[in-house]
Amino acid sequence: MDCIFCKIIAGQIPGDKVYEDEKVFAFRDINPQAPVHVLIVPKKHMRNILECDEETAAAVLRAVKAIAAAEGVSVSGFRVVTNCGRDGAQSVEHLHFHLLGGDKLSETMA
Ligand code: AMP
After folding, report:
1. Ligand 1: which of 28, 29, 38, 93 to mutate, most ligand atoms within 8 Å of CB?
2. What's the 29 CA to ligand 1 centre distance in angstroms?
3. How far, in Å, CA of 83 to CA of 98, rounded?
4. Overall pTM surpassing 0.85 (yes/no)
């Protein structure tokens, strides 16, 4: 499968890794939208949140907490976003969650 995130997880192309466990891999977004912008990606390929099982969702939640603490944004706050499909402006078809923080984020969501 020609998936850029699968290739990053496999180490075939570089990624600025910040977290890894059995189920999840996380790395810095190449085009950051905030001082902290990490992509949290299930290792198993799934296209979007509609294909996400509960075990993976739990692993993502654990990763969110660990990364927020490691990046120093647990107290100041942060945002977690996943884009889904065309109208959700998803550009990479491997489920990922954006963790954004490190500054006051926009009040608007869309
Ligand atoms: P989305 O639009 O929600 O699908 O988000 C895809 C994200 O992947 C964008 O924020 C891109 O900047 C990011 N991205 C694409 N290619 C890479 C890469 N090679 N390394 C890190 N981030 C990437």
Report:
1. 29
2. 6
3. 9
4. yes
Task: Find out whether 97 and 19 touch, Cβ atoms under 8 Å.
Answer: no
- Which helix H or strand E contains 39, and what residues bound it? strand 36-42
What confidence score (pLDDT) does residue 1 get? 76
pLDDT for 47 equals: 98
Alpha carbon distance 78, 76 (integer Å):
7
Average pLDDT of every residue of the chain: 98
- pLDDT tens per residue, range 53-78: 999 999 999 999 999 999 999 999 99
Look up 96 and say whether it is catalytic.
yes
Residues flanking ligand 1, CB < 6 Å: 4, 15, 27, 29-31, 39, 83, 89-92
- Answer whether 6's CB lies under 8 Å from 25's CB: no
